[in-house]
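Run log, item B.
One chain of 271 residues. Sequence copied directly from the ordering sheet:
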Amino acid sequence: MDASQLSHVGLYRAILSIDPQADLFHELLSPWMAGEREWLTAFEQQTSPEPIEIDDSWRLYALSRINQILLMAFQRGTHDSWEGPALTMPEYLAFMTGMGFRVVDEPAYSPFFHEIVEVVEADGTRPRQDYIDLERVDWPALMLGPMMFSRAGVAVSCVCGALQPEIATSSTLYWAHRRKYRPREDLADGWGSNSQWATQFRRDYIVGDKLLFNADGKYDLNDSGLRMREDGLTRAERIELLTHGCFVRCEKPDNDLAPYNDRILLPRDFQ
């Protein structure tokens, strides 16, 4: 098998089926990444919140699916029966940066940069501006220019009330296709083995001193006059679901929701 000639779907399936004793990085990932680097380099030069070609969105989505199964090497949990690939963090980083993605080390917690894996409650003595702190990074955030490609997986601590720990770590995570540690839902769910790959990639951007969540969303949550959806979520609850990708405080049912058309522009220090 010539790994460099595999399609995105072909690589995805090859990762899932490779012998656990095989050298995943050298046999599949390293030969394949060179073919993607040129396109990603060109895409980075023009990436912005403006609409992109649908084929480019599908290609980014396919890359995100590959990324998600690779990240299972660094996750624990029982929500996915697959053990994950035999991959080290240096190999993962070599693959992703070799294609042109940039590792971002954001020191302050932000739902733009961080996906919550675990919550530990703090003792409540911290100042308000430090009410959610990073405690551990399980995998890093990756960006392509100003566009977020993959958030870091993190453990956080917080003062009482800043988050609901059980909700923040176990509610359904949207825009996610595979996770070991929590339930998830994705726009590709329910489609066939081929049609699922024609799924639009969610694009989040740093825009000056602000953060844009879901650039392609139709409904601007900054519009205070926005009508309530049939799911009964308030505007604040929709913002929570959009920015975190899941509920972190809201106690309403978290499955079978439809946040995919919402968007919002917020200050960079938003938590």
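Observations after the first pass:
- Residues 112 and 243 are 7 Å apart (CA to CA).
- The chain is about 30% helix and 20% strand.
Flagged for discussion on Thursday.
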